[in-house]
Design brief:
Blueprint (H helix, E strand, L loop, with lengths): L2 E2 L2 H10 L3 E7 L4 H16 L4 E7 L4 H6 L7 E6 L2 E7 L4 H11 L1
Length: 105
């Protein structure tokens, strides 16, 4: 299940997770963000024991733009062992994200 969180909750959630964490910074009602969401939803089911997915609405959390240096949406940040290990901007297709998951986990 994809978790919707506020940016101030992010590090607490990342710190708790033993899995690869993918955070999507998105804007509601954005077609690219909706496409990315559906891809992440499918991959989360496929990799349910290996990843956790969180979403942060950047229109509700302006501080996240500054804290995480978000310049475009959707933006995906991958965390492992409490550290950022990869960052991607724009819509990524299912194969690209799946390959990243295999590479980073």
């Amino acid at each position: 299940m994809i978790h919707y969180i506020e940016s101030n909750q992010l590090m607490n959630e990342v710190l708790k997770s033993q899995k690869l964490v993918i955070v999507e910074f998105y804007i509601p009602n954005s077609k690219p963000c909706e496409i990315q969401h559906e891809i992440l939803r499918k991959l989360e089911k496929e990799f349910e024991n290996e990843i956790e997915v969180f979403k942060i609405d950047i229109t509700e959390s302006q501080e996240s733009i500054m804290i995480y240096n978000i310049s475009a949406y959707p933006s995906l940040i991958f965390f492992k062992d409490n550290s950022e290990i990869e960052r991607k901007v724009g819509v990524l297709d299912e194969n690209t994200i799946s390959n990243l998951i295999h590479e980073l986990k």
